[in-house]
Each structure stands twice: as structure tokens, then as C-alpha cells.
Amino acid sequence: MKTAFDLPNSELDEQERKFLEEIGEHGWFNTRVFDPEREEPDFSYSTGIFSSTGFPEIVVFSLPKQVSHDILWDIYRDVSGGKAFPASTKIEGIFGNHDAVFLPVSRNKYRDYLGWSRWFYDGDEFPCLQLIWPDPNGRFPWESDFETKFKSDQPDLTKSGWTDLRIRP
User: Are 102 and 129 in contact (CB under 8 A)?
Assistant: First the structure.
């Protein structure tokens, strides 16, 4: 798989070199996107998890900066150690006492949300999963009793939409 590590150093600017140094040292990099003028929620996404471990990159919305970073680190350590997190399945332990769900991100969403990852992989030929968190009652955004005050905190990045989901317990 071709990545930005294959580029000659002379073609990289300082920011790109630092980005690659972080991935080289830690195995991945966390990008935080926060713009108070955007109507969309803030989010964090990984770059390098797929090239380091074979597990898809991850995007997660509306969590505090340190919380999202720590969760992505924990997932990176787990998948580096061989743990599997199947998509479209409720997963225990990521959010303490509440389940989480990984859903495949549609490639037509990559341009809007995964800029550095697209640069690193030289396009959209890499998998990415959206990490979905539940409301305080353990309900997910596609469930009818999900708390409405959290509805806009996690946009649906799936290809066919949350209304057609089949989540395995």
C-alpha cells in the first residue's frame, strides 16, 4: 500500500514532515477538527492506524479533545495487540459502561472529514469507521428513544443511512 512515507523528503513541507514523524513514532496521528463557525460538530480522526495495524481509520464526533484522543489511543493499542472490533456490532468497554458501535464511513464523505488521511493514503483507498457513542441511557442515534438533545452531535456518515441499519447485539 502506498502512503506518504513513500514521498521524497524534498517534496514535503515542514508540517507534512512533522505529521509523518508522529505516525512513524507512534503508529498513528490524531487530527482534531474544531471550527466555531461551522454548524457541524467538532470531531477527531485517525491517520496511520490502517497502515500500522490493518484496522480501519476511525472518526468520532462531539467528544472532548482529550477524551477522543484517549479513546483512539486505547483502540490503537487494542488492535495492535490483535483485538478485533467488528463493524455494525455493539462493542463493550470503549465508553465505560455503555456500548459503542463502529459503522463504515461512505467514501463520498472522506473529502469533507478525512483530509490528512486522504493526503497520507494519496486518495480514498483506505477503510474508515465512524465510532458511534450512545446517549446516557445507552441508546444510539438511530433508535427512536435516543435523547433528542444529542441528535445533531453525530452526523450519519454511512452509505445507506442509519434507518437501514442492522446492528448485531
Answer: yes
